[in-house]
Amino acid sequence: MMLAEIMPPEDLPQSVQYADGTPIPAEHVIQARDRGLEHAVDVDWRTGDMLLIDNVLVGHGRRPFTGSRRVLVAMS
């Protein structure tokens, strides 16, 4: 079953709006996504590495990963 079959469009994960509730045009969303991907920096992880991210200063995401790993998260 697809999410679009059971949820209204405004509740879908890809739905984005301005603060006033007006939908952001798809072409603007695509442009923002593409600019983010153009400037993305991949981290060359090594055993024992730790990464701290300031969520106010940077956007972050994850690329696909295979293999074993241990993820610990703390937020303050």
Query: pLDDT average, as an integer?
Result: 83
Question: What is the number of beta strands?
Answer: 0
Which descriptor suits the 3D outline? extended
Output the radius of gyration: 17 Å
Low-confidence stretches: none
Structural class: mainly alpha
Strand content: under 5%
For the biggest sheet, the summary is: none
In oligomeric terms, what are we looking at? single chain
Residue share in helix: 10-25%
Instruction: Output the helix-strand order.
Output: HH
The separation of the N and C termini measures: 37 Å
How many helices?
2
Describe the structure in your own words.
There is one protein chain. By secondary structure, this protein is mostly helical. 22% of the residues lie in helices and 0% in strands. It has helices at 3-6, 26-38. The radius of gyration is 17 Å and the shape is extended. The protein starts with a helix and ends in a 38-residue tail after the last helix.
Would you summarize the structure shown here?
With 76 residues, this protein is mostly helical.
Write the layout of secondary structure elements.
Elements: H1 3-6, H2 26-38
Name the descriptors.
mainly alpha; 2 helices; 76 residues
